[in-house]
């Protein structure tokens, strides 16, 4: 791949990971890796434009239906497509259908841009991740195939022990924290051929052991504040993104 390419525009497509949860700003909005990447790209390209169509909770079918058409019509230089993980983390999932929809999205987006970026999404290390590993690995293998087929850049976050470390994740155990998003932005930056500013995959220092009581207290808080509401939405067919508009629905000049 060529290095130090200048991109004049960027459209991000996906779910909560690309929306930026849970990299919270003081005003309660979310920033995230895509915003951080846009800021760095904008510093190299006067008049740089950025749109972020990602909405939390979206399944791959919704991403295809609601986001890929508008994204392709924008004709941006750079497009990132990350989706499907919300599907495979559900109790029942047709992984073949998810792969087919992801392929439809890539086929629509790849011809519309100079560079399409796909990702093997990160996963928080632990027993929950292990339960879904076969589905995730099947999805990621297909993403590798899509990358080769469309000459897309594939960023492998899933293989990173550092990004998978629980300390890189918000207390909801579903979304990266600010440091996690910062590392993802650096990973994509380097994958696009830019000079590294740091080692995004650098190991974290050894974790300080946490006592039994502190672990149980954290588990109870997680179940009450995050797991319970998540299960409730699944049982009632609701999504955290219902009725929510993208935070940057138009391809407009970026202002940090």
Write the layout of secondary structure elements.
Elements: E1 9-14, H1 16-19, H2 33-42, E2 49-52, H3 60-74, E3 78-82, H4 85-88, H5 95-109, E4 115-120, H6 127-150, E5 153-156, H7 161-164, H8 178-191, H9 212-236, E6 248-253
Parallel strand pairs: 1-2, 1-3, 3-4, 4-5
Antiparallel strand pairs: 2-6
Helix pairs in contact: 2-8, 3-5, 5-6
Organism: Streptomyces violaceusniger
Pfam families: Lipase_GDSL_2
Region (Disordered): 235-256
What descriptive keywords fit this protein?
256 residues, Rossmann fold, 6-stranded mixed sheet, 9 helices, globular
What this model shows, in words?
With 256 residues, this protein is α/β, with parallel strands linked by helices. It folds into two domains: 9-202, Rossmann fold, CATH 3.40.50.1110; 210-240. Helices cover 45% and strands 12% of the residues. It is built from nine helices and six strands. It has a six-stranded mixed beta sheet with strand order 5-4-3-1-2-6, with helices on both faces. Strand 4, helix 6 (127-150) and strand 5 form a beta-alpha-beta unit. Helix 2 packs across helix 8. It starts with 8 loop residues before the first strand and ends with a strand. The model has no long low-confidence stretch (mean pLDDT 90).
């Amino acid at each position: 791949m060529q290095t130090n390419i200048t991109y004049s525009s960027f459209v991000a497509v996906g779910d909560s990971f690309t929306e930026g949860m849970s990299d919270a700003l003081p005003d309660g909005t979310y920033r995230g890796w895509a915003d951080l990447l846009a800021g760095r790209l904008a510093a190299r390209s006067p008049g740089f434009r950025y749109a972020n169509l990602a909405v939390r909770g979206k399944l791959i079918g919704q991403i295809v239906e609601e986001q890929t058409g508008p994204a392709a019509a924008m004709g941006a230089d750079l497009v990132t497509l990350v989706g499907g993980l919300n599907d495979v983390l559900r109790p029942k999932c047709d992984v073949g259908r998810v792969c087919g929809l992801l392929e439809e999205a890539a086929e629509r987006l790849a011809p519309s841009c100079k560079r399409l970026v796909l990702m093997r999404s990160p996963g928080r290390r632990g027993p929950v991740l292990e339960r879904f590993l076969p589905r995730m690995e099947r999805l990621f293998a297909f993403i590798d195939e899509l990358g080769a087929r469309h000459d897309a850049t594939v960023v492998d976050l899933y293989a990173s022990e550092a990004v998978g470390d629980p300390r890189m994740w918000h207390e909801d155990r579903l979304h990266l924290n600010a440091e996690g998003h910062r590392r993802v932005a650096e990973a994509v930056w380097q994958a696009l051929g830019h000079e590294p500013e740091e080692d995004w995959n650098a190991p974290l220092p050894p974790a300080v052991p946490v006592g039994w009581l502190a672990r149980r207290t954290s588990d109870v808080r997680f179940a009450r504040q995050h797991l319970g509401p998540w299960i409730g939405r699944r049982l009632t067919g609701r999504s955290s993104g219902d009725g929510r508009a993208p935070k940057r629905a138009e391809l407009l000049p970026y202002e940090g």
